[in-house]
């Protein structure tokens, strides 16, 4: 009997695909080609960027009606964001680009049912790996956009709500563009607007116009799955969401600013710099690093206002660069938080138009496709941003109950920051770490701000 019960339980939480269709822009666009630029290309060996949003039933409309409404809105929003309905392509010189044509399939929309899963189960603080089946394109490299849709959306009917799993090709857009698209789509669906209020700025070559020819064979040969077949088994990873209230964030910020660094004209530390050093220090502690061990802090910074000339917020594509800085664990942990905050602040402030240009030139001279192991030793790498208004993405049946990242693009030390669910200046912090270190971090009262 126990086996039968277990079988029933598994069936209850199983996700069943019920249909698949494609959505194209609501009007003819014609043939469009847009070159990928230096800011886009390094991410070809990352995986599709996954987001999971979930909504409680509001009593307004059946699941099928909501799906139709989402598809209708998608047709409208794709009239401006048509690149997401295209594919990756190459020109005669093997330079990569986004190709769009009216006869292409468009955006993939998958419909599914998981009647055994409740919205509350998804709002827990543990990682999303147990909900992998709610998000499409697990383990799919961005390079596969040559023959797959650049955006796949899975709409899953839950016991008491709806889950929206999205997989965006990260070689085509970054977080700023992702949430620009999502909020534009939501505004059309909820009736705030009948068309895209702020159209995307689609000419990437205005930010950089060097034509880079890439050798993609290493990417194809080292697709993650093969890498794991050789060498020692990878340590077990765990993901966890830590919620920092407005009061906790304010306390972290005032603590970082309470012992000012040597007066070298540095400014007070921002919320980001204060929270970043808080995470960096406590993760390093949880890892039991020796004083002489190096630890790297990386942030994927938005460069729209840093490049010369600056680009509009609506620039569609990747306009981010990884900013790296490092120090010895002993220095980071034995000094007050202001020490690490200053290291981070200096790295961010020195990443100006000149530094961005130099980085691009160096990369163009010897193009290297990034992989996660390039993030640095004992690293803490921060992506996403609490500035993204993720809880404003309302399609007409209320704000999301939760917004999370999928299991793609996670490695030891990867951190995603989100606007806190509780609003104001609260921030949600998603961290992936080796299981043993995570256990220590979860018990670290000082990290949790329970002291």
UniProtKB/TrEMBL annotation:
Name recorded for this polypeptide: BAHD acyltransferase DCR
Family the entry assigns: Belongs to the plant acyltransferase family.
Cross-referenced PANTHER family: BAHD ACYLTRANSFERASE DCR, FAMILY REGULATORY PROTEIN, PUTATIVE (AFU_ORTHOLOGUE AFUA_3G14730)-RELATED
Keyword Transcription regulation: no
UniProt keyword list: Acyltransferase, Transferase
Species this chain originates from: Gossypium mustelinum
Coiled coil, from the record: none
Molecular-function GO terms, alphabetical: acyltransferase activity
